[in-house]
From TrEMBL:
Family according to the record: Belongs to the DCC1 family.
PANTHER family attached to this UniProt entry: SISTER CHROMATID COHESION PROTEIN DCC1, SISTER CHROMATID COHESION PROTEIN DCC1-RELATED
Name listed for the protein in its UniProt record: Sister chromatid cohesion protein DCC1
Gene Ontology, cellular component aspect: chromatin; chromosome, centromeric region; Ctf18 RFC-like complex
BP GO terms, sorted: DNA replication; maintenance of mitotic sister chromatid cohesion
Keywords for this protein: DNA replication
Length: 368
């Protein structure tokens, strides 16, 4: 049996606190092993976070929160000695905790706050030089999200990248451009399955002076572009137009039937069959009324707190009880998967089963 002589390193005092032990989840181990075996470039792992934030670790496409777990036994960090005889190892540090990586929701909710006052609207070309600016690179370094999730967050929040600067587009202006795209598809006899991007972009630029870089990005948000042809995501585009309409009814509810008629009219005969309130889940409240008919009003989950306790407080201040299928969409942006959502419901809500289905009420009382 090989004998090993164990000594404390001369630099042990200086090294104390310099090492961290991280437990990798299976999918991350597999990623690292696969790149090692295939001799492909090693995956880039980065730790992000300001001193006031809990740190996260990001891969190319996923975000993990770092959670400290205290160990019952001390772990010694050993390295071969460079000065002592062969077989001698030095104790460099003693660890009493391990950092666990847990799948986490990317913190892209900070984007609207960082970009407040930088909205892109019709006729804004002359204002570019005077507007406050926040660059793509600045945001990517500050936002706790992988690069894939960050770019997805820009798309989902309708944020343009113009000359390297981030500009969230005004909802009404975006809706207008989408309406024009639908009109062009009909008037030019183009298929929404394979519409030539250049023809659409040129038409918008010539007829309405919409910059090509703006229309190109918008087209990419609502479908797939391959070999110059746009395969439109009909549901996503129709939903965006509906969302812009719904935004006008935040404080004053509108009859559901009236809203649906306005929405269908906005998308035109060719796409009215796609219109469904399900497309707007997590953005509205429906209020049944036996006399005049159900009404709806704008209530976007993106405007709610991202911290779970505060989110549930806001939800139960808005309504004392929620059906399971109603509350779910208002939690999807703060959890990773249905299991985590169910854990939050168990922690912050009380379930009641009735002939109408499952209802959730608050575990604590709130004053409306």
């Amino acid at each position: 049996m090989t004998e090993i002589e164990l000594r404390f390193s001369p630099s042990a005092a200086r090294d104390t606190g310099s090492f961290r032990l991280i437990e990798l989840p299976p999918e991350l181990c597999q990623l690292i092993d696969s790149t090692a075996e295939s001799k492909s470039p090693h995956p880039i792992l980065s730790i992000k976070g300001h001193p006031t934030e809990d740190a996260v670790m990001c891969t190319a496409d996923k975000t993990y929160s770092l959670r400290s777990v205290v160990l019952s036994n001390t772990v010694l960090v050993l390295t071969p000695s460079r000065t002592d005889p062969d077989g001698t190892v030095h104790v460099r540090d003693q660890l009493h905790e391990v950092l666990e990586l847990v799948s986490s929701v990317p913190k892209v909710h900070k984007l609207p706050v960082l970009l407040r006052g930088m909205e892109y609207d019709e006729g804004d070309e002359d204002r570019r030089a005077t507007l406050p600016k926040f660059s793509y690179e600045q945001a990517r370094s500050e936002i706790q999200a992988s690069e894939f999730e960050f770019n997805l967050g820009l798309r989902d929040r309708r944020i343009l990248v113009l000359d390297g600067w981030l500009r969230p587009i005004a909802s009404a202006h975006l809706s207008t451009i989408l309406g024009l795209l639908l009109n062009y598809l009909i008037s030019l006899g183009l298929s929404h399955e394979a519409a030539p991007v250049e023809e659409l972009v040129s038409s918008l630029a010539e007829d309405y002076e919409i910059p090509r870089e703006v229309s190109n990005q918008i087209i990419s948000w609502f479908g797939v572009v391959q070999e110059g042809l746009w395969k439109m995501d009909v549901s996503a585009l129709v939903a965006e137009i509906g969302l812009a309409l719904l935004g006008n009814y935040k404080h004053d509810p509108i009859l559901e039937t009236e809203f649906m008629a306005k929405w269908k009219n906005a998308v035109g005969d060719a796409f009215e069959s796609v219109v469904s309130l399900q497309l707007l889940s997590g953005n509205y409240l429906r209020n049944p009324n036996d006399f005049s008919g159900a009404t709806i009003n704008f209530f976007p989950s993106s405007s709610l707190p991202t911290e779970p306790a505060a989110r549930f407080t806001e939800l139960f201040l808005t309504r004392q009880r929620w059906k399971s299928d109603e509350i779910g969409p208002f939690l999807s942006d703060i959890v990773v998967g249905s299991k985590e959502r169910d854990k939050l419901l168990l922690k912050y809500a009380r379930a009641m089963t009735t002939p109408e289905g499952t209802w959730y009420t608050a575990r604590v009382g709130y004053n409306n």
